[in-house]
Amino acid sequence: MGETASWWLAGARAELALFASIGFLLFGIEHLLFDWLWLGRTGWRAATVYRRHDRATMATLAPPVAPGRFAVLIGAWDESAVIAQTLTTALHRWDTADYRIYVATYPNDTATIAAIESVRSRSLWATAHLRIVPGDRPGPTTKAEALNRAFTAMTVDEAATGRRYKGIVLHDAEDFVSPHELALFDVLIERFALVQIPVRPLKRPGHPGIAGHYLDEFAEAHGLQLAIREAIGASVPCAGTGCAIARATMTALADQRGGAPFDADSLTEDYEMGLRIGRLGGRGIMARLRDRPGGQLVAVEAYFPHRGLAAVRQKARWVTGIALAGWDRIGWHGGIRETWMRLRDRSAPLAAAVLAAGYAAFLLALIETGFAWAEGRQGPILLEIRSPMGMALYVLLLWRLAMRALLVGRLYGPGEALRSMPRIVVSNLVAIAATTRALWRYVAGGPPRWEKTAHSLPDDPPA
Hints:
The protein has 16 helices and nine strands. By secondary structure, it is of the alpha/beta class. The protein has two domains: 3-39 and 346-444, no CATH class; 70-322, Spore Coat Polysaccharide Biosynthesis Protein SpsA, Chain A, CATH 3.90.550. The strands form two sheets. The protein has a seven-stranded mixed β-sheet with strand order 3-2-1-4-7-5-8. A two-stranded parallel sheet has the order 6-9.
């Protein structure tokens, strides 16, 4: 390799490594602070609260003061592969609950409508608990537009029956609902404006990488991050599934928008709804309860994408709605704690740039090393572990891997905990690709469109 080319290669690698190192250090310190808050809160509760009281479970939870009925809203576009299983599971698992499911469909999606009708026509019970809400516009629009139609149909039913729903529950077309969630919502929605239960991705056999990295990210997001947001008094975003909103709160949200509670111009209407509830003064919580001591976590389960492009498309929509459009749409309202959380939410593009720089520096170092070995020289050292910066970054990396393994292990056991550590590379590469796609589409502009995730089930989904 020529001397000039070698100089340019070494210079590019050094600049990228410096940028990545500073970024990794700053992000690592911020993550460390969040982890310490969680560990401190968890340890304090274990040493004080749970020494005097047993952990609450569905078996010990006090009954609701005034039991009520729930409306479950689902937007469905091109979901014929999964919607029948979702509805069948809900009807089976909620056999004694008081609810009605409203599924918003599109006139140009006859396959999804037929799949819903196949479930709805099975019995009078199914007919009474399941309503199709057809649309006039061909799909896809946005998920928010579909949910607004479902909400309007719900209010029409309330006026016709004279009976008001106690809360509104949001679910996705691919969900496996928990048998206990409506009972949990019935109790907690009397005290809180928004109640979110964890989303627990299901392991997809034969796909430990792309599908598996969702296990790791949701274990951390819903096992640690939302718990700390709640604890410090910041808004708790709705995940768009497994989320219950008090009826009075939904009315207030609808009144702000002329009767439509969901913003049809938003790609992440669920996330924004949680922040809007916080601005109204409503309190949201992440409810992590088990059905009995040592039993199953009350959570929404679902199969997430197992192919790279599908994962990138899904996460690009999240990045666009939260980190890019969210900056313009919902601003920086709130105090220092709220601002901190919004900075975290909107840091995805910068985090992706730091990751890309780090991987690029590593690849350039490998190229340099190959040329150096060919010429009988020693290759470059990307990061000296003996330097203060190198030591700090290695310690932060090991800490991050250990925390992720701890959180994943609580839900999925030691095997997935170990797999979560190398799988962080998959998470990083998907994040880089998704952010690149999000930035490209955001700059291109155009009206928001429901670029939905294609859902599928394995051959043996849970009963």
